[in-house]
Amino acid sequence: MSKDARHSVRIKITNEPWTLRYSREDESLESPIDDVSSQGLAITPPYRENSPFHVGASVEQVYIVSQYRTYGPLNFRIKRITFQLDIERIHVAMMVDDDNSDAIMKQVYQDLYGLLESEPEPSPEWIPIPARGDANEQSRLQRLNFLRERTAQPLSGLEHCYLDPADASTKVENFIGSIEMPVGVAGPLHFHGERVSGPIYAPFATNETSLVASAARGSKAMSMSGGVSTRVMRQSIRLNPLMIFENHKGANYFTRWLLDHKAEMADQIQDLFPEIDRVEIWPHSLGTKVHISLHYTLAESGSLSKVKQATWTFIQRCLDYMLPKESVTIENFVIDSSFQGDTPADRSPLFSGNGIQVIAEAMITEDVAQTILKSNLSEILAAYRHHQTNRNLNDCKHTHLGLNHTLPSLLMATGQSLSSMVDTCIGQFYVEPVDGGLYTSLILPRLDLETVGKGTSFGHQQQCLELIECHGPGKQGRLAEIVAGFSLALEVSGLASLAKSYFSVSRRSFLKNHPVECLRMEHLDKAFFTPILQTLEGTPGVLVESLSFSSEIMNQSYFAKHLIRRKLPKFVGLTKAKLRYRVGQGDTKYYTCVVKSLLSGQDVQLVIESITKNCGELLSSYISRYQEALPYRDCHEREWRINREPPKPLVEFLPKRPACYRQSKNDAYVVIMEDLGNKIGSIIQDSKRIAEKLGVLHGQLRAHAHSDLYMPHIDQINVASILWGSLVVNGKFLFPEWYDDHLFQHQMNLLAKRDTWLPEWDACPKTMIHGRLNQNHMAFHNDRLTLIDWSYSSWNIAQHDLIDFMIHLHHQLDEELLNELSQAHWQALSESSERDLSQDEWQKQLRLALKFYTVFTYPLGLLEDSFQKSSKLIHFHSNLIRILTWQGLMA
């Protein structure tokens, strides 16, 4: 369109989305309006090859129409065009082109926003869920439609439900539907138990790849070695009633009386309740209160309801004796005060707690180990002993491998209570060499099982129970033996996997059978780069004449190098593209950029599994088990979003990024960024200025918690403590010739005493940090600091980045330089933060960040770099020791 071309434009401003209507030749066009300012407006018309919009073109005789008045005519000039090809539209920004239009536009802006600001904000409204308490299909659909209206989500998957609302409403409030979970079957496993014998096929509800296959493999191995023997050792429940007296004399009198008569009271309860085989009574006097521990051992027909009845009877007998005593006044009592307290399952005593205690035992012969488990008995025994050592190092009382995976899948399939699974998932796995093979056993001390009522009455769960003949009263013992037998099968199979790396192999085999069309180098053609150049030039008239890729070696991450060496068809890592193009009939232009294909979290996990396979299968199993505690999951989404939608303070620290491309179906996440040349990875001279820049960035980012950041949580860290201990041991094992003994001991002490400092770390103010601040991820030129590769970005203490930066400096660290860098970072952080930060407080945060870095970040980074065998690792190791010594954390 020539600059003299005119359009008659009318903009209608109402409560509906704003639209811009204009006439062009013989057709009328319409597009949405994005924004209105005092000097112009922005529209998003459809993308057309013969689009009338060009940067610099004028649009004249424009009229803006509201429901109250008409403004105009106005003249605009197009200032900026951005191509949004993913939605097939272009974003056009137009500014007023003369004084008259400027005055009219200011009036439009004042009238429009003055009207909007005068409207009162709606007051918060609490809208209750409809039909609460009603248990019928009509009420369920009414609640579902209510949610559709409130959320604008179709919720079609919840529309059809086979559950009876009347039955479901006895187990959940405000019932709207049910969810689905895949159920697989494993077996047969041959049982020789007290309550179960013969071959059994067991259901597993899980979405975890290879779990059912592993259970089937273990079942086959145990069956071919003679089967599994099972028996229920006991069923016990503990309640803790509380008696409250007027004074401590009454409490002491009652305690002495109960100690003298506890055998008599126990006999009375056992006579009244034949479901109770035995009851132990222990009173504990604390001031005016007496806590009573009642430990019940139950018969096959025993249940929690019978135990509560027996406890109520016990309290009534106590009251009958005490109330006539004038010197003793009972003010109140509680049937269960939970006096014993809740201990984390992995650290609680094995033979305490409520539930069924069951044991499963099986032999594994050498022939079966080699043919079915693809290992041998000596390798399996060695893997077990390594596992035991690591559990002992981390003060874990229980020695199972994967009950937190096995038991939930069995219990969900059979309708058990989800709230009981935390305490249920503990056990003692034991392996011992004997004549003829390996003896294996598994004790599960706290199975809380139901075979009638609650979730077992749902159709699918009931059928799963019927599959193993466990539906109905008095079947808890049979179900417990089946659960123990298949849990042992998975423990045996998992142990063999540790000996021969079958965890990672089975997962990779599964992924090979579900291929994805990946991004390849041939996809980076002229058509790929054309819209990028169109955005840069602000016009669709761009013709790419030639495209080539540089043979220059880029600073690839180790993960990318590993995948490149495997010669996968997928394009990963970095490459430099050189383009020659022409805009319209103009002169030839040249453009060079870096194309970065982000590694997916799945890619990184496969590389980590490959690395840890060579470090020992025990570490590999922990990496697989505690993936949630590691920063790899969704790392590609994290980096892509930070480049696409960075927090405002971060923009000046990122390279220029003309395009961020994503296509989930082929697992492609691509960032196009400026070519920083030899600035990346070069030796940084002004380290003090870098520290200042980091302090400014950290202070400004404190108000920008990005939803995709990796956020290490104290509970998550504690659960995975065995993983962190194994990583520290792995570093010492890989580099014994230079790994400092004092540093190793310091790391183990920090892990053992983490309860004394980790809560302080958790309470410190956090900010968005880079997470891997080595010199391959930064450039400093003309006083501009540029940071790349944000895949490790997290929500952490600001000083964590400073420590990372100092450790990876190539020159020697001394106390003078460390003081200089810390002073620069503290001053910049304090000035750029909204809160005052004293130097003492900054130093405290530095020491906590240093402890975190020493036991979590450094061992994981050393694992990633372990096969580079670079002399730089020794230098970085020495720098960490110097920083710890400087802060007085190491002698």
TrEMBL record:
Example GO BP: coenzyme A metabolic process
Gene3D superfamilies xrefs: 3-hydroxy-3-methylglutaryl-coenzyme A Reductase, Chain A, domain 2, Hydroxymethylglutaryl-CoA reductase, class I/II, NAD/NADP-binding domain
The protein's name in its UniProt record: 3-hydroxy-3-methylglutaryl-coenzyme A reductase
Pfam families xrefs: APH, HMG-CoA_red
Family: Belongs to the HMG-CoA reductase family.
UniProt entry tagged with the keyword Oxidoreductase: yes
Keyword Oxidoreductase: yes
Keyword annotations: Oxidoreductase
Entry superkingdom: Bacteria
Molecular function terms from GO: hydroxymethylglutaryl-CoA reductase (NADPH) activity
Domain Aminoglycoside phosphotransferase: 669-824
Xref: InterPro entries: Aminoglycoside_PTrfase, HMG_CoA_Rdtase, HMG_CoA_Rdtase_cat_sf, HMG_CoA_Rdtase_NAD(P)-bd_sf, HMG_CoA_Rdtase_sub-bd_dom_sf, Kinase-like_dom_sf
